[in-house]
Amino acid sequence: MDELALYEEIIRLKKARQPAVLATVIETRGSSPRKAGAKMLVYGDGSICGTIGGGKTEAETIVAAGEVLRLNAPRTMAFSLTEAHGGVCGGDVTVYLEPLVAAPHCIIIGDGHVGQAMGEAAGRAGFLVSLGDEADDRAELLSRADSRTYFFICTSDHQQDFLAVQEALNTPACHIAVLGSKRKRTAMEEFLLGQGVTPQAISRVISPAGLDIGAETPEEIAVSVVAQMIQVRRANADTDTHCSAVACRRPLKAHGHKQAIAAAG
What we know:
By secondary structure, the protein is of the alpha/beta class. The chain is built from nine helices and ten strands.
């Protein structure tokens, strides 16, 4: 595969939100099958695209790529192409492994003032943002959710919020937050329990959404909610695991007191 085709494949993976590792030969000394600049993509299932020279060096790189992807942390590996290492070239090769992981996805259900402000704030904070409101939009957005998805639900109707929460709970999303008051959360819990949703599942939901900074305007609310999302994302990175209900909730105050628009109560 030529280099242009490999970069096109990287773009395809990014758009499809499929993780991979890019292995690049960054230095060689003496004789080696590939020179500096040679690249290979390693997919999540261990399959490859391109080559850095084959043999034991490539096999060990593929194994290491799995760990790089799991930890989402780059690594440099040095190889001596001796007979003991399964080679006969006698040279040295250094390979840099770079994880290619899609940006966390913020799905905003509700395109009013708060939703619009959230979209701008989340985008500036490095999230891939998708924004929608109607039922058709919601179904399409929900189908895109994965374990690195952050939901923020803020429609103009409480019942639609509750339905959206119920649907979001059926996805592997790591964070589900809802705009509203404590009274609204109580009503939401009653609705979800009536629909057969378990208390354990309901505990995944953050409501009222956002850190307790006394936010009132749509822009302030967006800051508080995105800050909470960043807190979850960084905590997740520190523990080298995907977000879970426990990870999402542990470092956060359970309920703010001014995150909701006045009418949301």
